[in-house]
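Why should sequence recovery work at all? Because a backbone constrains its sequence more than one might expect. Tight turns favour small or flexible residues, buried strands favour hydrophobic ones, and helices have their own preferences. The token representation captures these environments compactly. In the example below, the structure is given first.
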């Protein structure tokens, strides 16, 4: 009996320590995030809720009052951290845009000459994503701007053969010298296309401007395709550096008068301190704006459920965003992230 109690104490002690570590990682100091594996712990923090419930149940059954109190505290802290991502579905979109999107859900096609667009970002897993499913999703969801990460030259060729240019005839891609590329496809003409924009040590971020010309006036939104370094053994410092480079750009440009959308694989959750430094100067995460949940995007199409929300659509004050959601695409380990955007200067009464 004594050895049994000792085993239970050890088990509960380990579970309790893990619950505390993962729960408190929501508030991990910025400098700690580049310590090996701490970025991964922070990304998985929302799933601690499951471990807390299991630990609480074991503690309650074995009448371990102190452990129950600690788990109750962890549960409250998890609720505080997760709450901003949930609630009544919200949108910044104007009534005119909501009406256009409702019509699109029936039989209308996307119109590059109106004042809104549905956009999509997808990490194609080094060109392994199913090109036909991507084209089908673009068609069915009426996508007008598509950002792709980890493409290859052969993938681009296959995507074009699958018919992407029938829907999105314009594109700009980054340099292919590293083996993989990032790319942006659009329905409307590209303005000021560039194969690289933000100065990043992770990869080249292509960018292009799209003009929204409906309602008797024109506004422009600049789209930047992002792909940062993943946090893994040997690259934790580089992971932090890549995000810091975006935050430095954000501090200079978030309020420079240009409407921006950053979309892609950030390899970080929006709650992590490195990401918050990108958001704080004036960017917002579409998932958080629309209160559509954590939107776990990785991994997918494997034995595990999606565990981390690392793919994002970020907008600054020049852009309204709504209808954020995710879609599975065969062949890649990331979900696609979709949202609807419009220039923030649109007349909401229209």
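From this structural description, the recovered sequence reads:
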């Amino acid at each position: 009996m004594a050895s049994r109690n000792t085993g239970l104490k050890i088990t509960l002690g380990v579970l309790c320590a893990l619950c505390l570590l993962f729960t408190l990682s929501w508030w991990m100091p910025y400098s700690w995030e580049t310590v090996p594996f701490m970025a991964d712990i922070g990304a998985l923090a929302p799933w601690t809720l499951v471990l807390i419930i299991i630990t609480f149940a074991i503690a309650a059954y074995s009448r371990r009052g102190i452990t129950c109190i600690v788990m109750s505290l962890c549960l409250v802290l998890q609720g505080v951290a997760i709450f901003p991502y949930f609630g009544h579905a919200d949108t910044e979109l104007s009534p005119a845009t909501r009406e256009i999107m409702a019509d699109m859900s029936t039989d209308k096609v996307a119109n590059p000459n109106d004042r809104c667009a549905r956009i999509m970002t997808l990490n194609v897993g080094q060109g392994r994503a199913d090109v036909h499913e991507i084209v089908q999703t673009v068609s069915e969801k009426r996508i007008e701007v598509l950002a792709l990460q980890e493409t290859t030259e052969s993938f681009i060729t296959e995507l074009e053969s699958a018919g992407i240019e029938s829907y999105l005839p314009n594109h700009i891609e980054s340099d292919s010298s590293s083996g993989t590329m990032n790319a942006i496809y659009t329905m409307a003409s590209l303005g000021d296309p560039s194969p690289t924009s933000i100065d990043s040590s992770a990869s080249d971020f292509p960018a292009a401007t799209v003009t929204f010309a409906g309602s008797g006036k024109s506004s422009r939104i600049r789209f930047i395709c992002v792909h940062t370094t993943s946090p893994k053994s040997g690259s934790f410092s580089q992971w932090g550096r890549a995000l810091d480079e975006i935050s430095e750009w954000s501090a200079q440009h978030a309020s420079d008068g240009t409407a921006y959308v950053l979309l892609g694989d950030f390899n970080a959750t929006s709650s992590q301190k490195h990401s918050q430094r990108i958001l704080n100067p004036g960017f917002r995460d579409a998932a958080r704006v629309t209160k559509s949940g954590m939107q776990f995007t990785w991994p997918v199409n494997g034995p595990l459920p999606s565990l981390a929300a690392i793919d994002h659509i970020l907008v600054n004050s020049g852009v309204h965003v709504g209808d954020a959601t995710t879609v599975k695409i065969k062949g890649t380990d990331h979900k696609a992230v979709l949202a609807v955007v419009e220039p923030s200067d649109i007349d909401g009464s229209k």
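A few observations help interpret the result. Residues 2-24 form the longest helix (23 residues).
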